[in-house]
Amino acid sequence: QLTQNFYQHICPNVESIVRSAVTNKFQQTFTTAPATLRLFLHDCFVRGCDASVFLSNENAEREHHDDLSLAGDGFDTVIKAKAAVDSNPSCRNKVSCADILALATRDVIALTGGPSYKVELGRRDGRISTKKSVQHKLPHADFNLDQLNTMFASHALSQTDMIALSGAHTLGFSHCDQFSKRIHSKAGIDRTLNRQYALQLKKTCPVNVDPGTVMNLDTTTPNIFDNAYYKNLQQGKGLLTSDQVLFIDARSRPTVNLFASNNNAFNQAFVTAITKLGRVGVLTGLEGEIRRDCSQVN
Ligand code: HEM
Ligand SMILES: [Ca+2]
Ligand SMILES: [Ca+2]
């Protein structure tokens, strides 16, 4: 069981220490925000929110194909925040990497204009991270609604939670290979794509494009945490199949329409959903450990 005031007597300033380290890093590079937010998903969906994604060795989670595109700035944010926490004598080695990631995620959402919320704390760090454990655990860009719902439901997240969390794609970018089938297939351009938008995608991501080329996930406000993502879906401007399907499928469309028309409803649903995401598979009490170095077990 996590609690909001877990570190009250252990490290009372943990929230402000993390916030200033994250703010500092964010001011140097914007990618800090999307990279940290995505890292939280990739950690929580594999072995729970236990910082398993940070462990480094030849066979660790990070080596799996689905984690290779995680931007380094997300890892760097947590490592910097952890160093800041540990530089305070009363906090040294008392705050888990998993909790620092949860706090940093909250901070980057606020820094980009999203909602502020209280973070539940008390997670412990796991000792296991394997490439194999990532297989079939993360959502893919070509998933349909049933596949998305099944995967999120396995973590006690509802369809509404899933749609709200997909709103994280209001920030950041995707490499061309994640959506190239939508624009370069024999059957022609994906019919659910807005024509003009599709032409834009083809221009940025031609056949044999440099694999490092990226497109913003939110074509309107890629640097602001807002509900523009849902308004784009209404216009056929969802970048990934898994984004656009939320508007195409009649079962999820009403929720997309609600979030598109009501930023407040989106923010509230997002806070509920990310709080639930932060509870997924957590280690508490004497389980796991408080890692001294986020990339290494003690
Ligand atoms: C619903 C199913 C989801 C799918 C299929 C999906 C898939 C993807 C893919 C393919 C990318 C692009 C990766 C790349 O090429 O670099 C991406 C980026 C991103 N995802 Fe998701 N995602 C999903 C849900 C989420 C959730 C729940 C969150 C967080 C709460 C999230 C946060 C992000 C962020 C912030 C980026 C941008 C990363 C950056 O710019 O560095 N995604 N996602
Ligand atoms: Ca994990
Ligand atoms: Ca946006």
Automatic annotation (TrEMBL):
PROSITE patterns per record: PEROXIDASE_1 (PS00435), PEROXIDASE_4 (PS50873)
E.C. designation(s): 1.11.1.7
Active site (UniProt): 42
Keyword Oxidoreductase carried by entry: yes
Domain Plant heme peroxidase family profile residues, every copy: 1-298
InterPro entries: Haem_peroxidase, Haem_peroxidase_sf, Peroxidase_pln, Peroxidases_heam-ligand_BS, Secretory_peroxidase
EC supergroup of this enzyme: oxidoreductase
Record-listed Ca(2+) 1 binding positions: 43, 46, 48, 50, 52, 61
Cofactor requirement: heme b; Ca(2+)
GO cellular component terms, semicolon-separated: extracellular region
Keyword terms: Calcium, Disulfide bond, Heme, Hydrogen peroxide, Iron, Metal-binding, Oxidoreductase, Peroxidase, Secreted, Signal
Residues holding heme b: 169
Protein's recorded name: Peroxidase
Species in which this protein is naturally found: Tagetes erecta
Taxonomic lineage: Eukaryota, Viridiplantae, Streptophyta, Embryophyta, Tracheophyta
